[in-house]
Design brief:
7-stranded mixed sheet, 9 helices
Length: 294
């Protein structure tokens, strides 16, 4: 560690600290009349995707010990019985779903729910969107239980404990960037572990996932996806704004068997000892497995 410190100090000690303060974005990133609108874009890759985007302040990333965005993304993206993805797959509408932080700048973040659609899901995108909003409403009304919190904590402790080794240069580079967001004492664990429960933060994030502050991003490679074609200045992406309200809830109940994650009895205790670890029982080389009965 002393050698590494000397390498850094000798090269960077001469840089003057000009005490610049980061810009804080405390206003909404889009005009109010752009909410509840759909931005359609032509995708360069074959396929279709539907993303619900919401904006909230950056407390969800600053209070990283509570893992607000990661926890809510974990619930919205789970794949077990009653999940949003399980329902969409049962209808043949989706192949994948992810949820979590999107854009993240000082003072403002976006929370995205992104769904990879099948061809049938493209035709039924309105029903897909209504189901997604229904699941968000379900989570908001039922809240985050202690059993969900405990499952999330144990899963991520296991991921952290048994994380694969990384290239040192990539690891150090990422940790240097993380210093903007995490206290140095938490630089290793901060992005991964649930160390504090903050139900007020979870409720604040869920309260931001509202229909009236949603933007829908609908991308497809289909030729007939766009009626009129605007072109983005920097990358040349074709897109259009469309006042399409069919994707938003209309007061009709969604007929879907949605439910929050059940307790998972198969998650091992992160603190359990490792039986037959390499340190205690090293494998010298590959073993020949003989053929035969049994």
């Amino acid at each position: 560690l002393d050698e590494l410190q000397e390498m850094v100090v000798s090269r960077f000690a001469g840089i003057v600290d000009r005490e610049y303060k980061p810009t804080i974005w405390d206003s909404q990133p889009v005009q109010p009349d752009r909410y509840r609108q759909t931005i359609r874009a032509r995708s360069m890759n074959p396929g279709h995707s539907l993303t619900l985007r919401f904006h909230t302040d950056d407390a969800v990333s600053r209070e990283y010990g509570a893992q607000g965005a990661g926890l809510i993304g974990y619930i919205l993206g789970h794949e077990g019985p009653g999940s949003l993805l399980a329902y969409l797959k049962s209808r043949g509408w989706a192949t994948d779903l992810g949820a979590g932080l999107g854009e993240n700048v000082s003072g403002l973040v976006s929370f995205d729910v992104s769904i990879a659609l099948t061809d049938s899901g493209y035709e039924s995108y309105s029903e897909v969107g209504k189901a997604a909003f229904a699941y968000i409403d379900l989570l908001r009304s039922e809240g985050i239980s202690d059993t969900i919190l405990e499952d999330y904590r144990r899963i991520h402790e296991l991921h952290f404990r048994f994380a694969e080794k990384q290239r040192p240069s990539s690891f150090v580079s990422r940790k240097a960037a993380d210093l903007h967001d995490y206290a140095i004492r938490d630089i290793l664990t901060g992005p991964h572990l649930l160390t504090a429960v903050n139900q007020d933060l979870y409720k604040a994030v869920l309260s931001a996932l509202q229909v009236d502050t949603a933007i829908v991003l609908f991308a497809s490679s289909r030729e007939d996806h766009l009626r009129e074609s605007l072109r983005e200045e920097w990358y040349g992406v074709e897109y259009e704004f469309r006042d399409d309200q069919s994707i938003f809830p209309d007061g009709t109940a969604v007929d879907a068997p949605l439910a929050l994650p059940r307790p998972n009895p198969f998650i091992p205790d992160p603190g359990m000892p490792i039986i037959g670890s390499r340190e205690r029982d090293p494998v010298i080389g590959p073993a020949l497995v003989p053929s035969g009965k049994g």
